[in-house]
Amino acid sequence: MFSYSAKILTSQPMRLAITVTGIALCIVLMLFLLAAYHGVADGSVDYIRKNRSDLWVLSSNAWNILRGSSILFTGDALDIEQIKGVQSVSSVLLTLAGIRKNDQQATVFLTGFDPEADLGGPPHIYEGRSVENDQEIVLDKDFAKKFNLTLGESVMIRDVELSIVGLSDGTNSLVIQYAFVTLNRAQRLIGYPGMATCFLVSAEMGANLSVISEGIKMKLDGVEVYDHETFLKNNIKELQTGFLPFIFTVAALGVVVLTAILSLLLSVNILEKRKDFAVFKILGSPRGFVSGMVISQSVLISLAGCLTAVVLYFPLVSFIERVTPELNTKTSLMQMILVVTVVLVMSVVSSLISMQRLRRIYALEAFS
Amino acid sequence: MKIVSNLKNYVMLEGVNKIFLDGDQKFHAVKNARLCASPGELLVLLGPSGSGKTTLLTLIAGLLSPTSGKLLLFGRSVEDYSQRELQSMRARKIGFIFQNFLLIDAIPVVENIALVLRFSGMRRAEAITRARKLLDQFNIGYLARKLPSTLSQGEKQRVAVARAIANNPELIIADEPTASLETSQGFDIIKLLHNYALEEKRCVIVATHDLRIADLADRVMRVVDGEIQVEGSGKFVKRELPKQGIA
């Protein structure tokens, strides 16, 4: 059956090529969206994921740092340090800031941290080193690439000149990138010394985190304390609610277009080969043979589309990432398996839609 | 002539009528048809276009049910066959030849023939081997890998005949098999079918408007307006036509 289907499909090579290319582009779109999502997701939460703190303390109305608003005072960190089982507390200030270089201007998610505490800084240094004093800054590597910034150059935030000493990785959340300075520099830039967004708490070995958490809430009013896993989940959830619906909508459109292309092609094929199908029926084709041919044609086209998509995908993504450095994608085998599965399911659905026409083809038509 | 149900008759029609309804309109396509077809004979249904020949063929193939009357296929009433049995019967016991050949253009000649063998349950490799042998017997082995669209009309019809007899069916139904052919090619095809009927003791029913074919038939039935009006040898029917005012 597959061999007959393949021969029928290849008997019109131009149409087959156009259809396979159309399907391949739909698949590329779906793969790209998944990869972009994972790239953004990782870039957005890697800062939290790779952080070694045990507890995150924020204002009680903020349960994430991506879109939460938290204001704390660094002096409160001293109270937390007094709690039994707490090893260290590090203040972090997160704020949006404009960076200028000559006539170029861009916004970053400026992260002020204490270099001495070694908590809250860049999750991974791609090139160079982390900040050591108030005149230094670490930029996201994709951000630096986009604006042609290299190590040793200087950028301006407000009227302060900062030297680029490092480039970080895993700090690109598509719409905005992280940049790292000392806590002191960040506080002075926004004009509120003593202000922080969150406290990162490290516990002593074997300490009970729940007890510490309760202790913090008793000492400080209006704060919420999250363990590392919960806080990571909170931020991923925030990301998903903000970004996933868009991704899913576009991906769903891709699936609909793919199904429509396949259904249309199969329906046209059935209509054009109407006599052939009537002949199959009159010659006594076994039950399921004719419908099986339509399904196998659909599956063959989809598989050809998948193969073409894989060939097209990686050069295409590489090109897009060169043109748009801030777009960070992450492709995995699981994503590919997921997309291929969706495509194969949709190819069967398309053939079932087209089969409505098949039922109205009668063996008698061979005599007309 | 009284037709008696006989297991030797592959096909038997007794008082068969076929009426098509189109809204309030009735079209009586076959009227009180009486016919039997036995192994070893070439039976020709002769008549002009629209006379009901093709409807008779489709009834005989079990593709249509009679509105009234008795239709036996291979000794069994057509009403007693399930759809699956009819499909299986067509795959194993009936070969078809169509006016426009109706070969599958997308697959090579050898696979067109192997297709019917596959439908009757044969494995692919065996079906291909048998199809090649058949093509060699027809002296058209050189066409095996060609696509039907590249063949001449005569070649296409020979392939169509090879496809029809591939399963060694007990009954061959041919609808205007010579209509697209030159006279000599048409005669060759009918002779081929006649030889098959005689040598293999099979039955061949041909519907045609071509009077010249009547000479090669064992029996001819003249069909006009859905009725079988004259029956006999080819020469007899040809003699009778002018008497009935039918040219």
Give a quick rundown of the structure.
The complex is a heterodimer of chains A (368) and B (247). Chain A contains ten helices and twelve strands. Chain A has helices at 2-10, 13-49, 75-81, 141-146, 183-190, 209-219, 228-272, 274-282, 289-323, 333-359; strands at residues 55-59, 72-73, 86-101, 104-113, 125-128, 136-140, 154-157, 160-168, 177-182, 195-196, 198-203, 223-227.
Describe the structure.
- The complex is a heterodimer of chains A (368) and B (247).
- Chain A is an alpha+beta fold and 368 residues long.
- Chain A has two domains: 2-44 and 238-367, no CATH class; 61-221, no CATH class.
- Helix content of chain A is 53%, strand content 20%.
- Chain A is built from ten helices and twelve strands.
- Chain A has helices at 2-10, 13-49, 75-81, 141-146, 183-190, 209-219, 228-272, 274-282, 289-323, 333-359, and strands spanning 55-59, 72-73, 86-101, 104-113, 125-128, 136-140, 154-157, 160-168, 177-182, 195-196, 198-203, 223-227.
- In chain A, the strands form two sheets. Chain A has a six-stranded mixed beta barrel. A two-stranded antiparallel sheet of chain A has the order 2-10.
- In chain A, a hairpin with a 2-residue loop joins β3 and β4.
- The model of chain A has no long low-confidence stretch (mean pLDDT 88).
- With 247 residues, chain B is of the alpha/beta class.
- Chain B has one domain (39-62, 82-243): Rossmann fold, CATH 3.40.50.300.
- Chain B contains seven helices and ten strands.
- Chain B has helices spanning 53-60, 83-93, 109-119, 124-137, 153-165, 183-200, 234-243, and strands spanning 11-22, 25-37, 42-46, 68-73, 76-77, 94-97, 171-175, 203-208, 219-224, 227-232.
- Chain B has a six-stranded mixed beta sheet, with helices on both faces.
- In chain B, a hairpin with a 2-residue loop joins β9 and β10 (227-232).
- The chains are: A alpha+beta (368), B alpha/beta (247).
